[in-house]
Amino acid sequence: MKVVVVGGGASGCFASLLIAEKGHEVILLEKNEKLGKKLYITGKGRCNLTNAATGNAFLNNVVNNAKFIMSSEIRFNSADTRAYFENLGVPLKVERGERVFPISDKASDITRAMEKGLKELRVDVRLNTKVTSININDGQACGVTLEGGNVIDCDAVVVATGGITYKLTGSTGDGYKFAKAAGHKIIEPVGGLSAVLLNDKDLKNLSGLSLKNVVVKATSNGKLVYQSPIGEMLFTGQGISGPIVLSLSSYINRILPQNLVLSIDFKPALDEFALFQRITRDITELKSKQFSSLLSGLLPQALVDVFAKRLNILKTKKVNQLSHEEREALVKMLKNFTLDYKGLDDVDRAVITSGGVCVKEIKPKSMESKLVKRLYFIGEVLDVDALTGGFNLQIAFSTAAACASDF
User: Could you give the CA distance from residue 313 to residue 290 in angstroms, rounded to a whole number?
Assistant: First the structure.
């Protein structure tokens, strides 16, 4: 069988390897000058290859369409991915959060290993080759047309073109165009794992302020949409970022900004009653000191002015003159510091794409289109995305393996 794989990123290279191992003729087409361009920047250049979590522990980190990805993840999970790459000659290590990296901390080792494997399996890799359309005849994929008009006939086409983030790596949404032309529905692609933009003018000067042991949450029409685990976040010149914010963004990226309220819990280890008691003790100890001293003991110094202004309490007011209502207001703000949500950062700066080919039209066990025979969609082009930590790359490998199992 002759198979054309469109896209030489993680999923495309991996599918090419697995299909070629079965003895099929594989042509891998990549429009960039080299393979795995986006892989070079994953994990800050270290390549967070996968996550050691499996089963429900893995699926709990999938934000959209975990049920769809379940069968492919069970059949080819992170343990299989690790074994495969170590067999390719890349020693791996597991770090905090079950993140898996090459021992060398070099993303290039992953790409080189796949390139070596492709060469040994005699996969026909064609760089600087752009596909303009998928050819379909009598309800079945039968080839591709290249820029310039040349046609490659084949028995099956695998679309592994990625999403729309990091356009300089070639992720320009080509796969959505191919899918639409084949009759597929596209769930609007948006950024996932993105920084969050805010309208709050009083927070503009907090750029660079890092917070630890806080919780962020989002509510829509009074209902909780997402509450992060206790973690770290960062104020930027335009909003907020950091690990728990990136996770938050993937849960709110399909909700209109005007329907969302974001907030920070600065003291997640204490409920309101315990926090009120702590503040009462602090006031007793501080006696006649100023309100700013009380705030300094509860918050980073950069937030003292912000809190005093929002609470409409003078910083010079003596703490023992604070009314019961003012103390309660402080507690509520520490537990529920609201943010005026503007939207997400530019999609091109998002870590991954959320949205893509509607999975209701894809067979979960093989990634074959339900609309066109022998047309497959794998990796980020699908409407499946997960949190940070190697989960998204594992989805690329699991879907590639599911596709390869059909050959």
Answer: 11
Distance between CA 159 and CA 403 in Å, rounded?
Answer: 10
Task: Give the side-chain half-sphere CA count within 13 A for 69.
Answer: 32
What tokens appear for 32 in the block?
Answer: 């960039």
CATH 1.10.10.10, applies to 2-192+351-404? no
Rounded to an integer, the average pLDDT of 99-113 is 96
Cα 175 versus chain centre, distance: 19
* Beta strands 341-344 and 196-198, pairing class: antiparallel
DSSP tag of 7: -
Q: What is the rounded CA–CA span in Å between residue 395 and residue 397?
A: 5
Beta strands in 323-388 (DSSP E): 337-339, 341-344, 352-357, 375-377, 385-386
Between CA 138 and CA 373, with CA 171 as vertex, the angle to 5 degrees is 15
Q: How far apart are CA 301 and CA 68, in angstroms?
A: 47
Measure the CA–CA gap between 312 and 179, rounded to whole angstroms.
55
3-state secondary structure of 353: strand
* pLDDT (0 to 100) of residue 287: 85
Q: What is the DSSP string of 201-227?
A: GGGGGGTT-EEEEEEEEEEETTEEEEE
pLDDT band at 198 (very low <50, low <70, confident <90, very high): very high
How many whole angstroms separate alpha carbon 51 and alpha carbon 395? 10
Q: Where are the alpha helices (DSSP H) in 203-301?
A: 243-252, 272-286, 291-298
Class of domain 195-344: mainly alpha
Q: What are the residue ranges spanned by the domains of the chain?
A: 2-192+351-404, 195-344
Lay out the sheet containing 131-137: strands in order across: 131-137, 140-146, 151-153
